[in-house]
Amino acid sequence: VPELPEVETVANGVHERVHGRTILSVWTSGKPQTFKSPETEIAEVLTGARIAQVRRVGKTIVMTLDRGQSNHATQAEFLIHLGMTGRLLVSPHGTPVPLHTHAILTLDDTREIRFVDARRFGRLSIHQPTPPQRAKDNEQRTTNNYTGPGREPLTISPNDFIALFRNRRTPIKAALLNQSLLHGVGNIYADESLFRAAIRPRRQAARLTRAELTRLRAALIEVLHHAIHLGGSSVSDYVDADGVRGFFQLQHKVYLRTGQPCLDCGTPIKKIALAGRSTHFCPKCQR
DNA sequence: AGAAGGACCTGCACGC
DNA sequence: TGCGTGCAGGTCCTTC
């Protein structure tokens, strides 16, 4: 499901609703693959912690915890990756618990943060900061926050963006999906940004001109902002922290529009397989 | 280095 | 109504 705009919408929604609250208790489902850190560690770190902040890094929701004392463990963060079908919901106590609920954090005002994930591609884990190596680091009180595998698409400079794709022999679409380059872009926004930049998905990344990459960065940032503004894309089951669907799916120009006329030129939208993903583009507009 | 394919899961839409 | 097939926003692993 969720790419950058959807994860941003969920993280912001959860932040507004629960920051400053304290987690009183934690329940987890015991389905092993959901938990990248041991469930005991997750329960231990979360129980009694105050939620300082909920934010997005790449496609990951990061919950910053305040646990009072000043050892490293106080700086631990709770990471939530939604996979394809994950949902993070803030619900009143007593409302029906959905099928496929894998974690429930009960807050000090009785509300619950629930992690629900039908396909179980989502992952929950604790990010522990690495301990300071030298006394100097200690003085600076380095917080060592989770930064993710790649660069943030919304804030990367044009030159850094261009540099990412230099020497990449892979198709530009595959490079956009590579989370260790840019993180946060998935199948929808890769296709949509390439259409808006008029670039064919199969073009080799290293062979794109500076002008094309500049155009691609602008198109990507524009489409991501637009999608965030509309609460993300709800193709099948994505919802925000309140269970509300997004609206950006209505703005898709190529994604899931196979055979339908291009909104700019009328040519039927083509679908190919690339990097193991379905890839949609206009054979006339994109070169 | 990078491409392709499968694995991991459930649910839904579709054709018969 | 029910069954089989294909497909879905992500990532990780193996093989070539």
Structure explained in plain terms:
It is built from seven helices and ten strands. It is an alpha+beta fold and 287 residues long. Helix 1 packs parallel to helix 7 (210-229), helix 4 packs across helix 7 and helix 6 crosses helix 7. It binds a DNA duplex (16 and 16 nucleotides) through residues 1-3, 6, 33, 59, 81-85, 100, 117-123, 168-171, 174, 177, 179, 186-189, 232-238, 255-256, 273, 275-278.
| Net shape | globular
Rg, rounded, reads: 20 Å
Main sheet attributes: strand count, strand direction, barrel closure: 4 strands, antiparallel
Order of helices and strands: HEHEEEEEEEHHHHHEE
What oligomeric state is this? single chain
Number of helices: 7
Task: Give the helix level as a range of percent.
Answer: 25-40%
SSE blueprint and pairings:
Layout: H1 4-18, E1 23-28, H2 39-46, E2 50-57, E3 60-66, E4 77-81, E5 86-91, E6 101-107, E7 112-117, E8 123-127, H3 135-140, H4 158-165, H5 172-177, H6 187-196, H7 210-229, E9 270-274, E10 277-281
Antiparallel strand pairs: 1-6, 2-3, 3-4, 4-8, 5-7, 6-7, 9-10
Helix pairs in contact: 1-7, 4-7, 6-7
The structure holds a DNA duplex (16 and 16 nucleotides).
